[in-house]
Model the fold of this input.
Amino acid sequence: MYILVVEDDYLQANLICEKLTSEFHADVKRISTELEFRLSLNEFEENPPDVIVMDVMLRWTDPSPEIKIPPREVRKEGFYRAGIRCTKILAERDATKHIPVILYTILEHTDLEKQLTDLSTVMDVIHLRKESEDDRLVDSIRGLSRPQRHR
Amino acid sequence: MEDIEHSISSLVITALGQSKLSGLSEMLKSIALSMNAFGAILWQVVPGTDLNKEPLDGYLFVLANWFRDDRTLALHNLPIGKSVTGAAVKEQRPINVKDVVSNNDVYKRDQFLLHANIKAMCTMPVTFSDGARGALNFYRNSPNPFDESDLVKMERFASIIAELYQAILDRVSFKLIGKVNDAIQRAEVHASGARDSKGRTLTSLETICHLISNSFQCAETSIFLEDRLEAPGIFKLKATTWKGSLKRYEYSKRAKEGLTNWVQTHARPVRILDLDYFDRDKDKILSEYKGITWEDSLDYKHSGRKYLRVDGRIPPLSFMAAPILSGKNVLGVIRCSAATKEPYYFAERELTLLTYVAAQLSQYWSNWLSLREMQEENKSWKYLIQIIGQLNRFAHKELTREKPDEQRIFAEALKVTSSVIQGAEVMDVRLLNEETQQLYFAQTHGTFWTEGSPTETHNRLNRTFSLVGKSAGAHVFNTGEVRLMPDVNKDPYYSGTFKGIKGMIIAPIKIEEKKFGVLDIRSTGDAELPRHAKSIAELLGQQLGVYHYLATTIRDLHETQANLNKNIKELEKLQGQQTQIFEDLKHQLYGPINQAHARIQTLLKAEYPNIHVNLDNGVISSTELSLLRIRGLCGRTRRVTKNTGLLADLSRGKTPELSFKRLQSEYLTNLLVNIANDNKLMIDPEYNISFHVDRESFRVLRLSEYDADHDLLEQALMNIVDNAFKYSSRKTVVRISGGLTGTRRFYISVSNEGTPLRPKDVPRSVERGWRSELAKWTTGEGAGIGLWIVHNIMKAHTGDVEINPTIGGRTEVKLLIPSAR
Done:
């Protein structure tokens, strides 16, 4: 099983990756920025993950003296809905639109209701609020073997 | 006796049958025939002659004459002092000359006596009803002198001739007055209803001229009138019976030369017996009419003479003119010249009659002008209604623009005012400057404004008027009442902005009692503003008041709306920012708490083996690593929580309360090491970001005394160290050191390499909620309040935070703490 974790907080990502590796003995890959995600799209098309655990609030890129300027929608919307943008990008591609995405975030369902409704028409998207117990994340991934809708 | 009575009866009957001045000749014919005379002349002394003067220099002129051979004589220069006739007049006795040829006292210079072969003559003094003196002469051309019985008859005739002459004059006068009355009445009827009332008026005036010419038997009767609606100050020829051309067809009010001008400028009638002897009789003429001159506008000296020939001779050029008055106001002049039948001279009576006709003409002309003024006024009001409609549409279009410009409305209003009010040439709108309480020119119209040098124009346009003091504009503004000044030069309130102004109207620009300014309307030259202009100006003033009020209100509304929109946008932005801040804080708090809890759970469950981990500063167990990370997470949570609390307090204006404690070197360095270490452990070790705390540099604290609130200082340090790690690139070092500035302030410096801070962003970096674009792209979470809180913590310490933008790749933040002393 190939799980992609898109999470910019190292400790959070570390926790998730450790758990998922332990539970699923999966190949867990981590991406920490939106830029890195976008640059990896071709790779995802060729080798799509079985599930993507996507943080919603995600930084554009790592600090550096030379920074690649983000596209207009990123500059306008900021990092607050980066994960939604990344999910939409997946939905626009035939090779990736079938990949189930778990939006794993501290944001409430009500914070993302409209975006979730829009996304659910084109993709399998699950909203899961981050809790200290990550068993729910494990259960959600397990449940993806059955047909899912956003919760 | 019976013979005399019969003759007198015949004379009276003859006289009563006369309705023309030439009827005098008929009377003389009747008398002469009864005297069996060849001819008779009725002489009159030239008016103004002093019969007591020595030597006597007056003249007699022919009032009427008749001769059997139908000759007519037009003589006016029979010297009183050198003629028998004159002697009879002076001495008031009849003189019978039985032999004219041999009598040297008989004046023979004019030769008519010899040419007519007069043999005998008799002269009888006559006194006319107005006191004028004269003589009745009889002539025979046969050697048959008049005898005593003839003299008796002559005396009787002489005694009644004056009365009969008066009777004829009365009849002529009444007839003329009646005919003039009829002509005027017909003219007034036509004027009220006719379309071409002007044309009919001129025809009526021509009719009156002909009536007068026929009555006075003169070659020229002319009427000059001022039409103040068309050409104020100009007396134009309206009608004439003169067949030739005139040198002048109009006279200006200000002109001085000429007989007609003299009449209109002095408002007095003039009568001159014979213009041909103007120069000879100049002294006498000037003594009666001071300053009068003769321009010969009918060119009597040359071309005009061809229209005057009477039986091959040029008659005396008698002249009279009367002013046409309305009160003291001269409306025009009526004049007559060159009688073509006897009497060839205009007597005082004729002048009186002419004056009476002038009075009738005055009434008629005044009525006609008033009627025209009323028609013009009606036209003006109708036009005004139309114009107001247009103006309202213009104003509406202007007022519905985003930024209505009332100057354009005023300009349009002044333009239409000039078309509605005849004579309105120089106009302006003056508005009140609320600050200075002075009226200033807001808009102008008319070429007068730009006359003169640029400096004069500038000064004129920028002139202001106080509301206090003696000025027409201030008076109108303060009272709210329209003021009409028919002649500004006679009005003490006129400020004298322009020379050459005749009339002025000032109307208030207001709505109800709220006043904004005044509307000025001026006429130039001799032009008078029509009477109804005052009402129109008042109406326009009110209209301008409405426009000004609307324009100001709309502008204020737009401004308010713009401010509201701006405030709404700012509120929305603030709301957006607040939403982001809350989401971010939730993210910053929830994440670490969750993670800390999860790690504690993991440790308790002992899910993972305790392995050793290599760190920069040595090897530690994975359990210790987890605990350190938990400490870091808790520290982050504590920091974010405290930031949130400080955000709330500072937003309410509450200054942090400080509890000062001495700063110790060891405490500080350990604190910094722990903070730095906690941060390092929370970032991906693959990024290979390390830190270095220069412990030595903090030794200065041993030598000097510096106090700080330890909790708040820790908070500030956690914020800036967190920033330093957050913005560091891979494989870089965060450097932390201390020291003293040149002013003995203690500083703690934290510097890093990574996301650059531009110099222009430095001032904003301590603003609440601000983050640079580069920072937003490279860190994600962050509410932009960290440095703002640091800034406020340092301010509370009477210290400072110094931010040095990226130079040579490093960005530095320094906390500056003043000495405790």
In short: Chain B touches chain A through 42 residues (CB under 8 Å).
